[in-house]
Structures are given as structure tokens and as C-alpha cells.
Design a protein that fits this description.
The chain is of the alpha/beta class and about 270 residues long. It has two domains: about 210 residues, NAD(P)-binding Rossmann-like Domain (Rossmann fold); about 45 residues, no CATH class. It has a seven-stranded parallel β-sheet with strand order 3-2-1-4-5-6-7, with helices on both faces.
Length: about 270
Amino acid sequence: MDLKLDGRVALVTGSSKGIGEGVARGLAREGAIVIVHGRNKTKTEEVAHNIIAQGGRAHVVIGDLTNDVEVQRLVDEAQAFVKPVEIVVNNAGGSGATEDWTTTRPETWAAGYDLNVLAAVRVTSRLLPSMREAKWGRIVNVSSLAALMPPFKRPDYAAAKAAMIAMTASLAKAVAMDGITVNTVSPGTIHSVSLDEAFRNVAVNHGLAANAPWTEIEQTVLPMFAQVPMGRVGTLEEIADAIAFLVSPRASYITGANLRLDGGMWPGL
């Protein structure tokens, strides 16, 4: 299926690693001009150079999304590379300290909200005017299954990610007549570099070799982390493909939705 993304300009925040990197690579494979964002200049440029080496088109912006001045600068740079940004994937965020309800602190909640929710607000609010003028735009906010199935640890993270889902629904209504769609994706357990390392460390403690095939690691360790009906973790490519569809012209009637990518973990309807 041709997603008709060739030449579309997409900013993916937090794309120097993990899910964001996977999304940037996926959009580049579909022909989009990808703006790779990160705080670490070396890592961010490495991702962009690799995309270009594989035949894609990419640019780089660097900046801290909790800093208004830096956000304005990087958005201005992004808007000036080729043409105004038409697609934004608000992926940047994080979970901060590992706290539970016996240790959680208000300042952790404030920092987590700033890093996840307000970062997306800062970027989106600055890109909306050009999208409205063009009468076309795509916004995807990356939440988490933790927003729907909050664990007892990191309550601040679950709450911030839940706020992103509510933010999506509100914004989708506000721009529905402007040719702009706004959706959320909520990944479950995804095979990133950090998850791979965590699983292999646990596997060693259960008698497997650290360099054992991933399928063996996955089958042994996954049940200790999550009960996934599909019996496997998701891949970065699967996340990227879902987002590529949502930001494409082919998904023009999908807005305000929250797409769960969890292998069937969500127990609701």
C-alpha cells in the first residue's frame, strides 16, 4: 500500500534512540523527509546519517523540550529546512525516578508532566499555525499502556501518559475542521535496546547465556514482566508501521483515537 508520504516533512521528537528512532527510520522508508531530534548531538546525527546512507532524507535538530527558548529555536530550524513541518510525532518523554506510593514526591510528578505532556504541548502549539494555514497536518502523541493499566510503580509516569491521551482527544476536536488529525499510540512491551538488555540480564540469572537467541530469552523472561496473549514483545518496526499509517493521507478519517499496540494485554473492550 502506498501511504503517499513521499516528500512529507515529519518531525519526530526523541528520535535519537528507542521507539523514536524506529519511527524516524520507518517514516524515512516511506519516503518522508524526517527531522531527527534529540538532546545528544552525536547520537542524533548518527541516526540521521544512517537514514541518509540507506537512501532516506533526514535533517537534525537538537534541544531540550522542557526549555521554551530551545523549543522555539529547534522548531524554527525544523520549519526552515525544506518546507514547514506537516507531521509531528511527540515521542520524547520518560519515566524518571522509580518511585511508588510510599516514596513518590510531588516534584517527580511535576518533572514527569513537563517531560512528557508539556514538551508535546510546546512543540505542537508552535507547529499548529503552519498546519492550519496549509489545511493539512498530522499529530501523533506517543503514550503508553501504563496510561490504561497503571502499575503501582511510577504513578507519575502513568498519570502523565494518561494526560497525553486526554490532550489528544481535546486537540483532535479543536482542529478537526482544519484538515489536521490528532491521534495517540499506546505501546505495550516493545523490543528496544534497553528492554533487550534488561531481559538478557534476567535470563542470565535463570541459567541462560547472555548471548542466547532472542526467541529463547523472550520465551523465558517475558512471562516475568508481562502477560502478553500473543506471547511475544512488539517490535520497533510494528510501532513505526502503525504510526506511518496514522500520519498518512490514507488515515484522514481517524482522529482523536488511541491505538493500543500491546499484543492483546488490554483487558477492556
